[in-house]
Design goal:
The chain has 354 residues and is α+β, with helices and mostly antiparallel strands. The chain has twelve helices and eleven strands. It has two domains: 225 residues, no CATH class; 93 residues. Strands 1, 5, 8, 9, 10 and 11 form a six-stranded mixed sheet that branches. The protein has a five-stranded antiparallel sheet with strand order 2-3-4-7-6, sandwiched between helices. It is globular and about 60 Å long. InterPro entries: Znf_prot_DUF3669 (IPR022137). It holds the Pfam family DUF3669.
């Protein structure tokens, strides 16, 4: 149900007359959306508008690199447009957004408009609640409207996931590696896709990937696929061509996909050892999305190798034809991650013997 490519029938809510609601927040901005609509509005909540502009330019750059290298197995939200804080017309055209944001942001403010990642469908949300929420709070969690905005952060570099959580929210739910395996998800494929995405961000977009997120969300799919012209031409006239169930909702399903998002903190890197060091530092301070090297279990070793091999494969595709010193940089990044983990283990051993 939560596996990549799994398909679940979803009934979309009507967006007519829908008001704006807050669906998320971070250091840079507060995110608003309308139920059933396909856009989100990220409003700068401080006077540091340059962070949101950086989010826009980096997002646009990385999205174009994904297209250039035909990265299709990892999704990135479409980046629509940026409205600066001094453009009063934007808020004149969005009075509902003013009403929703007036207590949370200093208006007018800058706004980044992007594609909304479809939340995971109800059956998947209920599975997560039944598995990880404390029994006494499960029905309350299922009834909580906020839990409809469910995206799952995938932490392949952590095994600290817990069950029976008393305080439970599905907004940006953290799914650690032990839970990924418990649910039977394809961790190796997730690791490989993260490797591809990181390579594109580093070597095509030339960004350090600081604070980017990898989440499981949905992607709307029309089923069955549209019929080909020749197929329709050869049909007997007046043939039924809809879903076999005759139910309209069976034409629309949600497929679980891995998404990469949140680019407000990414920084440019140079194509040299200094740039590699900056990329390593960014990975060091990020949440534990990508697999870690030097782990003890066979599964963790498998995931690190899967990540590293796909990272190098994609990096080679991007950098092919560059100077030999540049071609070595992706390997130096991976070695840097190994050194970071080795240093952490050394510090832990010192603390244990003290």
């Amino acid at each position: 149900m939560l596996s990549l490519g799994s398909s679940v029938v979803s009934t979309a809510s009507s967006a007519h007359g829908a008001s704006f609601t807050k669906i998320g927040a971070g250091a840079c901005g507060t995110i608003f959306a309308q139920d059933g609509r396909s856009r989100v509005y990220k409003l700068c909540k401080t006077d540091q508008h340059e962070f949101l502009w950086n989010d826009y330019t980096a997002h646009n750059n990385i999205a174009n690199c994904f297209k250039e290298y035909r990265v299709e197995k990892i999704s990135i939200p479409s980046c629509y447009y940026f409205s600066p804080h001094h453009d009063a017309r934007f808020f004149n055209e969005h009075p509902g957004l003013i009403e929703a944001a007036k207590e949370k942001c200093n208006l007018p403010t800058s706004v980044l408009v992007t594609e909304r990642i479809p939340a995971l469908p109800e059956p998947t949300r209920h599975l997560l609640i039944d598995t990880y929420c404390a029994t006494i709070n499960r029905e309350k969690a299922k009834a909580d409207v906020a839990n409809k905005d469910c995206l799952v952060r995938v932490y392949l570099g952590s095994t600290q996931g817990r069950s029976s959580m008393k305080f439970f929210s599905l907004r940006n739910f953290k799914l650690h590696l032990n839970q990924v395996l418990e649910l039977g998800l394809d961790a190796k494929t997730l690791a490989q896709r993260m490797g591809i995405a990181m390579a594109v961000i580093h070597w095509a977009a030339k960004k350090d990937a600081r604070d980017v997120e990898f989440v499981l969300g949905s992607s709307s799919e029309t089923t069955p696929p549209a019929l080909g012209s020749a197929e329709v031409e050869n049909m007997k006239p007046m043939t039924y061509t809809g879903p076999s169930s005759r139910k309209n909702e069976d034409f629309f399903r949600q497929i679980t996909k891995l998404w990469v998002l949140d680019f407000n903190q990414v920084r440019p890197i140079t194509m040299d050892k200094v740039g590699v060091a900056e990329a390593v530092q960014a990975a060091k301070v990020n949440d534990p999305y990508i697999p870690k090297p030097l782990q003890k279990s066979a599964k963790e070793k498998e995931l690190w190798n899967a990540f590293a091999l796909k990272y190098l494969e994609m990096a080679h595709t991007i950098l092919k034809g560059q100077e030999p010193e540049v071609m070595k940089l992706p390997v130096l990044f991976l070695r840097g991650l190994v050194d970071v983990e080795r240093e952490k283990r050394g510090l832990a051993e010192e603390a244990g013997s003290a």
